[in-house]
Structures are given as C-alpha cells and as structure tokens.
Design a protein that fits this description.
It contains 2 helices and 10 strands. By secondary structure, it is mainly β. The strands form 2 sheets. Strands 1, 2, 7, 8, 9 and 10 form a 6-stranded mixed β-sheet that branches. The protein has a 4-stranded antiparallel β-sheet with strand order 3-4-5-6, with no helix packed on it. A hairpin with a 6-residue loop joins strand 4 and strand 5. The N terminus is likely disordered.
C-alpha cells in the first residue's frame, strides 16, 4: 500500500513467518507480538537502545522509540520472551519499534529497521537501519550484505518499516520470501506500515 504500514517477524528459511502484516498509509498502524521462546532464565535486554549499524545513513535524525507499544495479546501472557513489532505508516504516526519484553532493540530511523537475535540464547547479534531513499548507497544491497555477514540458521530476524520502504529491490524481497516465507513484502505500500518476524532456516 502507498504510505502504509508493514511488520514482519520470522526465521530465515522458514516455510512461513511467525508474523507479517502490511497496511496502506492512512488505514492504521500494525503491531504484532511473537513468542521467541520460554527458556529460563529470561534474557535481560539493555535498558538503553543500542546504536544501529551504520549501513545506510538516514538523512534525518533517528526518531525516538515509542515507550508504550501495544501490549501482547493474552495468548502470549505466559511467554517468557515476547517480541513486539510496531510500524505506523506516514499518515498513521510515522513510527516504528522493535522490542523484547518491553526493551528496545535498536535505534529507529527512516527505512527498514532490522534486528538479528540468536535463535537459542536470544542474544542481540546485530541491528541496522536501511533507508532506500538515502543518498548514501544501495540500502537493499546493504541489508543483504548485513544479513550474510551476521545471520546463521535458526536466528530470529525482526523487521519494522518507518516512512517508505516500497522501493526496496526485488533481490531483497526475494530473499525475505525464500528465507522467512514473507509474502506481503512483494507488494509493499508507499509509506505504509510493515512488520515481519521469522527464523532463518526455521520450519
């Protein structure tokens, strides 16, 4: 959708993502919650958001991460480690957030905001922001290189869009489709909302 919202969560290589949703701008933000695992003890995330990997510098200063994302649904109440992915399209608040147990995982900026978590320990492996409208290089190629450099089979990939990501390359869309089973990524709305969560190589 044009100026919409998108959210995706999943494991690379999975047949389908744990969560994926896209909405056109002006039709409402999207928030998805995903249980990453119930292993004890629950991993404690940093209280301050780590700095995003400087792969594609945004033209504007990063926006502060919302402090009150939508609560996880009741079905996740017993989950020890719950991720929340939030994306609000340009006309729905122009915001995004990626958190686990309420703690932010990355600094949010325009473009695709992405996080990799270890599939077993949930340790933060890498985070990054990839702005397809930046004048600092090809953001799609940068995200593919970032994934190849940091991700391993079974790691969690969390993605939330801010502002516009509709012009990301076909190569990046195909990789997200093949590795985490994303489907809505192939027709992203201009300045819409989008989130995705999935596991690399997950079933």
């Amino acid at each position: 959708p044009c100026r919409g919202s998108d959210v995706l969560a999943g494991r690379s290589g999975g047949s389908e993502p744990a969560a994926e949703e896209a909405r056109a701008s002006g039709t409402g933000a999207v928030t998805e919650s995903v249980c990453l695992g119930d292993a004890e003890p629950a991993w404690t995330f940093p209280t301050a958001a780590p700095t995003a990997t400087p792969t594609a510098t945004p033209t504007a200063a990063p926006t502060a991460i919302p402090t009150t994302p939508t609560a996880a649904p009741s079905s996740l109440d017993e989950c020890v480690n719950a991720a929340t992915l939030h994306s609000a399209g340009y006309d729905d608040g122009d915001a995004a957030a990626l958190t686990v147990n309420g703690a932010p995982l990355t600094t949010i900026a325009r473009g695709l905001n992405a996080v990799l978590l270890d599939g077993t320990t949930l340790a933060l492996i890498a985070n990054g922001n990839f702005d397809p409208w930046s004048s600092h290089g090809d953001a799609s190629a940068a995200m593919l290189a970032w994934r190849d450099a940091h991700a391993s089979t079974d790691d969690w990939l969390l993605v939330a869009a801010k502002d516009d990501v509709s012009i990301i390359s076909g190569a990046l869309k195909s990789r997200l489709a093949s590795e985490v089973g994303a489907t809505q990524v192939r027709s992203l709305p201009f300045r819409g909302s989008y989130v995705l969560a999935g596991r690399i190589g997950g079933s």
